[in-house]
Amino acid sequence: MNVKVDSKGRVLIPKSIREMVELKDGSYVNVTVQGRRILIEPLEPVASKYRGAFKIVKWPEDLDEFIFEVMRDWWKQRAT
After folding, report:
1. Which residues of 41-73 are buried (b: 16+ CB within 10 A; e: fewer)?
2. Contact 64, 25 (CB under 8 A)
3. What is the DSSP-derived secondary structure letter of residue 34?
4. Above pLDDT 70, what percent of the chain?
5. Does domain 1-43 have CATH number 3.40.50.720?
6. Residue 40: count of CB within 10 angstroms of its CB
7. Which of 8, 11, 18, 38 is most open to solvent, judged by the fewest CB atoms within 10 Å of its CB?
8. Is 90 exceeded by the pLDDT of residue 74?
9. Is the C-alpha dihedral spanning 2, 20, 53, 57 positive or negative?
10. pLDDT digits (tens, 9 = 90+) for 25-50
11. Are 29 and 13 in contact, with CB atoms under 8 Å apart?
């Protein structure tokens, strides 16, 4: 299937493909390059991956986004 890259480098993944791999608004994907191929693979939701690993008193509205931000901050601190 051919799709167009916009001026900001974005590509619209057709709805039929998003449905096949269960990508929803806000889902995270892993993007890698193999030769001249760009691979986009859906990531398992962070909340599902770590279910039961933490005791949380109050759940954030978007748990995946919350964990992503915490991990990004941790990596920034570790890099300095």
Report:
1. eeeebbeeeeeeeeeeeeeeeebbeebeeeeee
2. no
3. E
4. 81
5. no
6. 13
7. 8
8. no
9. positive
10. 888 899 999 999 999 998 876 655 66
11. no
Question: Are 1 and 17 in contact, with CB atoms under 8 Å apart?
Answer: yes
Domain coordinates in residue numbering, the chain: 1-43, 44-80
The string over 9-33, giving b where at least 16 C-beta atoms fall within 10 Å of a residue's C-beta and e elsewhere, is: eeeeeeeeeeeeeebeeeeeeeeee
- The answer to whether 43 touches 27, Cβ cutoff 8 Å, is yes
Q: Under a CB-based contact definition with an 8 Å cutoff, are residues 22 and 42 in contact?
A: yes
Share of the chain above pLDDT 90, in %: 39
Distance in angstroms (rounded) separating the CA atoms of residues 11 and 5? 5
Token duo for residue 48: 């599902």
